[in-house]
Design a protein that fits this description.
five-stranded mixed β-sheet, five-stranded antiparallel β-sheet
């Protein structure tokens, strides 16, 4: 009995070994009915977590850090306006007569008088022509001053975090292509760093995602690494064309346009690099769906033929341009 138990414990499982060798990017195998992207063109994941806890949803600092600059300033202005309106109503509740210097008689005049006093108190400007009188007004203005100091400390931290967070501005070609390469064919795309900050030690990994039918008839999503001709460069001052040769070992070997469409193929690109100014690691994501792959094409050169002061110039806007050619 003990011998049988020992044999069962050391017996290898073919299914387990196969599962351990399966490539997994983090999307799982169950996304079979979704005819859509896994990674959006802006690099975000095409997935949304629902029913999260309140504290996870209320991570306001993280949300404000990731907002675009226009939206960030709109949110800051709205918060500033709402807080001032709230304190203005509180001043009116305890009586505007407790604010010396407001001479309006109508409700509107009193509200705007209290509003601008609140704005001056919140920002600690305090012009002095309006001042609190009495315990309630003085206590409320003291609380508002504290709220203003803490609020501007948080706003300062947000602005600093937004400026200090390195964001790579890598522009990808709108389409990837199947192109002739040496005496074979290859799948290619290209990219360029638009930011004035240089990137060094750039590493690129590419994976293929597609639907496949198991012997049981069940559809499952599988992932395969695509070996690049070169996946790492030390410097990235110009554009870079990434090449995956279509050899017999390639998961794309012998594919057709119909096959890519039927298998809902998407090619995922992940980039890791070091931002040279602050020596901080950065990363970027992109993907190409099957309809974004052009068959029989060749990228046009991006170098500007005219040299000025001996400097090689690269036309960034040409990154998307290609010519139709015949495959090998």
């Amino acid at each position: 009995m003990k011998t049988n138990r020992l044999i069962n414990s050391i017996k290898k499982s073919a299914l387990l070994e196969r599962e351990e060798q399966r490539v997994e990017l983090g999307f799982g195998t169950q996304l079979t009915g979704l005819q859509g992207r896994l990674v959006n063109p802006d690099g975000s994941f095409n997935a949304k977590r629902v029913n999260v806890s309140f504290w996870a949803w209320a991570d306001i600092f993280h949300r404000l850090t990731l907002l675009s600059w226009p939206r960030f300033f709109v949110v800051v202005f709205l918060i500033y306006f709402v807080v001032n309106c709230l304190f203005s109503l509180l001043y009116m509740l305890i009586g505007v007569e407790n604010l010396q210097g407001i001479h309006g008689t109508g409700v509107s005049d009193k509200f705007w008088g209290a509003f601008f006093f609140s704005a001056q108190t919140l920002t600690t400007v305090g012009y002095g022509h309006v001042s609190p009188a009495g315990l309630m007004a003085s206590a409320l203005s003291s609380v508002e001053s504290l709220v203003g100091v803490l609020g501007f400390a948080i706003a300062t931290g947000l602005v600093y975090s937004r400026f200090s967070r390195p964001v790579p501005k890598i522009l990808f070609s709108q389409n990837s292509i199947f192109a002739p390469y040496l005496d074979i064919n290859a799948w290619m795309f290209r990219m360029i760093n638009e930011s004035p900050n240089e990137l060094v030690d750039v590493n690129v990994s590419v994976s293929l995602s597609r639907l496949e039918t198991l012997p049981s008839g069940q559809r499952t999503r599988k992932y395969y690494p695509l070996k690049l001709e070169r996946n790492q460069v030390n410097f990235f001052p110009m554009h870079w064309t990434l090449v995956h040769p279509l050899t017999e070992e390639s998961p794309l070997y012998g594919v057709t346009e119909e096959g890519l469409r039927d298998s809902d193929t998407e090619i995922l690109v992940y980039i890791r690099a070091t931002e040279e100014t602050f020596l901080q690691p950065v990363h970027a994501r992109y993907s190409y769906r099957y309809e974004e792959i052009t068959w029989g094409a060749k990228f046009r050169p991006m170098f500007d033929g005219a040299k000025v002061d001996g400097i090689v110039r690269v036309d960034v806007q040409k990154i998307h341009e290609f010519d139709k050619v015949s495959l090998n």
